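R.M. (postdoc): so does anyone remember the format we settled on? I'll just put the structure tokens first.
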């Protein structure tokens, strides 16, 4: 058993932080829950749960429509969430489109930016490690425009092959779509350097920040990309919340994706004048309560301190990796030194789903399967992996419990 590393100066009291998450107190199959599926969705702290509860109890109303007090309060809270998220990402609020998650955000870029612009012969460059949400929208655009998808390959350690990526950025490439952090490997891609190179070559960049926003000290403006997508439920916020940041000039040049109320200034049967960005892309009633919760989640993460969150997760990752490497027959996918606290693995002779099922019997929640990244698993030549993904509220004791449960499962399956 390895010793628990000391807490860095100024870090929160993590035991007290954990107590903010009521769900983590429950048992599963008679065992204390060990929730290691954070890359799938994160748990919610009391301030988020309370914010959603308070919205429905005290000021539930639609946004931007009613002049009455409740409508004003709801609109202020919703716009307040936009302002908080914008500050968190370091982008202007009027360049931040609120939507229901990364999947929607990436489709918005595909349908509003790429579809009207790309043509036969153009190339969309994606990496091997993308989530399906950053592959399939581009395939749909390619089918309709005659553009091609080109794949930037990875190296066996799960890092991007940067030489190959640079070589792939030829004159036909109009768009590069890339994950900031891989949801399977944990690899943190050097997006700043990559975007600088892409910009030099006139390539528009779309960064999928789903797995980065909850874990890294993030400065979207400094990355120098053109589009950046985030999803709220992985940031301790409610499901059905997320955002797309885009450079103002791109947002202004893009047609609306979905039409309806809220995204217009004036409608007549002769034609419609659209609202200004970002509202032009926010038709219909949004997930108001969800965004109220997301605003609280952003405040919560900022109060903990993102540098403290990152340090805590790195300490847990180091512990987990070290212990896992000692288990006989374990293969870890994604071994770059610069990675987030996501560990995909297999145990020789055991199927990922069997492992995950036996771990669940011990109260340990990991994800098994293809993690919405079929092409990546094809590269490694495996049908599925188990994935343990950590958050700051996990503990070193949970790492030990996970390893004990894994040893037990291994013995049963071996
Ligand atoms: N991209 C990555 C890297 C992800 O991990 C996920 C969620 N698993 C998504 C996109 C899609 O996010 P959502 O389902 O919240 O839209």
């Amino acid at each position: 058993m390895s010793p628990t590393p000391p807490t860095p100066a100024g870090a929160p009291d993590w035991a007290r932080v954990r107590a903010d998450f009521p769900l983590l107190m429950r048992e599963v199959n008679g065992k204390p829950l060990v929730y290691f599926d954070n890359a799938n969705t994160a748990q919610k702290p009391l301030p988020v749960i309370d914010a959603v509860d308070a919205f429905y109890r005290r000021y539930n109303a639609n946004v931007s429509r009613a002049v009455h007090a409740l409508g004003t309060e709801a609109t202020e809270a919703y716009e307040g969430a936009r302002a908080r998220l914008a500050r968190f990402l370091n982008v202007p609020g009027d360049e931040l489109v609120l939507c229901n998650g990364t999947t929607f955000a990436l489709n918005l870029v595909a349908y509003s930016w790429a579809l009207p612009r790309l043509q036969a012969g153009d190339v969309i460059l994606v990496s091997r490690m993308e989530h399906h949400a950053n592959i399939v929208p581009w395939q749909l655009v390619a089918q309709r425009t005659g553009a091609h998808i080109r794949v930037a390959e990875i190296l066996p350690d799960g890092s991007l092959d940067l030489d190959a990526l640079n070589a792939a950025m030829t004159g036909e490439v109009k768009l590069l779509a890339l994950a900031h952090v891989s949801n399977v490997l944990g690899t943190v891609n050097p997006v700043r350097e990559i975007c600088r190179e892409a910009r030099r070559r006139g390539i528009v960049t779309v960064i999928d920040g789903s797995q980065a926003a909850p874990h890294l000290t993030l400065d979207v403006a400094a990355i120098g990309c053109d589009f950046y997508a985030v999803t709220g439920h992985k940031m301790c916020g409610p499901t059905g919340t997320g955002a797309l940041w885009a450079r103002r000039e791109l947002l202004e040049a893009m047609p609306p994706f979905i039409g309806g109320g809220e995204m217009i200034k004036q409608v007549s049967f002769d034609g419609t004048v659209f609202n200004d960005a970002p509202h032009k892309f926010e038709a219909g009633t949004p997930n108001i309560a969800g965004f109220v919760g997301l605003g609280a989640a952003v405040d919560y993460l900022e109060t903990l301190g993102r540098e403290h969150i990152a340090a805590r997760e790195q300490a847990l990752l180091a512990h987990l990796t070290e212990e896992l490497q000692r288990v006989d027959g374990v293969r870890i996918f994604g071994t770059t030194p610069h990675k987030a606290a996501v560990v995909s693995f297999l145990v020789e002779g055991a199927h990922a789903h069997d492992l995950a099922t036996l771990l669940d019997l011990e109260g340990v929640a990991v994800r098994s399967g293809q993690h919405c990244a079929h092409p990546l698993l094809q590269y490694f030549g495996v049908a599925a992996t188990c994935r343990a993904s950590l958050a700051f509220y996990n503990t070193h004791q949970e790492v030990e419990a996970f390893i004990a449960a894994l040893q037990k499962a291994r013995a049963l399956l071996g």
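R.M.: ...and that's the designed sequence above, right after the tokens. Also worth knowing: The chain is about 40% helix and 15% strand. Residues 14-44+305-413 form a domain with the Aspartate Aminotransferase, domain 1 fold (CATH 3.90.1150.10).
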